[in-house]
Amino acid sequence: MGSDHCLLLLKPVAHKNQRKVFKFDKRWLTNLAISSIVFEAWDFKVNDSPQFRVQQKLNNVCNSILAWLKRNNQNSPSRVAPLQRQLLTLSRQHDNNSIEARKATETALLKAIQEEETFWRQKSRIKWLKEGDKNLAFFHATTKIRRSYNTIHRMQNEDDNLVELRLR
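The structure corresponding to this sequence follows.
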């Protein structure tokens, strides 16, 4: 008895490592350091055609922001947990120094939470959400649902048969 499977010969093609697409992050709008980096990087002098100048300036801004991001931890979820632990520790102390430290920690924690909300709001692409909604799990779930909708689950081959695609 023969098999109904056809041999499929695949030839792997080596891909050059391509840089990730640079994506704007709304959290940068409230960061003064990013503003100064953008102004400084844009001020870079390029003597060439106007189109080439704009391209070079944009590349310079992009590279400057990426370098700054590597040097500074801007991952708000990784900043929230330590700040929450620090706030818990400070709330157990009752001296004057801990009151000031607690206020500073609360401010930093609120900023980190707002940045995380902004990140998920931008990622989820939901326009109707109001500022101040603390439901980060909702933002995360919405993003995952949108990603699943955008995934190709099956394709039609040249014989008009539907082929299920199995992704990792």
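Residues 96-124 form the longest helix (29 residues).
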